[in-house]
Specification:
2 domains; 3-stranded antiparallel beta sheet; about 25% strand
């Protein structure tokens, strides 16, 4: 039996007992608990990303053991926590550009 069907069963019991106000309070707490769990999960993901970011060669990289992903714009990461990938400039060899803030780095 899933949590939703259990919750429906509880609603019926509270209604029979004339305790709908209590049921509504429990439902509100249930929703708040779900929202808090979601927020914790989101914050854990952000913390994991922050811990894996390293600054090398004028850009940020995500390191996972020996794997390295990037480069990411240092301006966007430092200012807004955004992982915007730097792309090779089509005009200037050895230059990488950020499509969001127009920051660039040179190899």
């Amino acid at each position: 039996m899933g949590i939703f069907s259990e919750f429906q069963s509880m609603a019926a019991l509270f209604q029979e007992a004339g305790k709908m106000e209590l049921y509504e309070k429990i439902a509100k707490l249930f929703e708040e608990n779900r929202a808090l769990k979601e927020k914790v999960s989101e914050l854990e993901k952000k913390l994991k990303l922050k811990e894996s970011m390293v600054f090398e060669d004028r850009a940020y990289w995500i390191k996972d053991g020996e794997k390295k992903d990037g480069p990411f714009c240092p301006h966007c990461w430092d200012a807004d926590g955004l992982t915007i990938r730097l792309i090779d400039s089509p005009v200037t060899p050895g230059r990488k550009n950020c499509s969001k803030c127009k920051h660039f780095t040179k190899d």
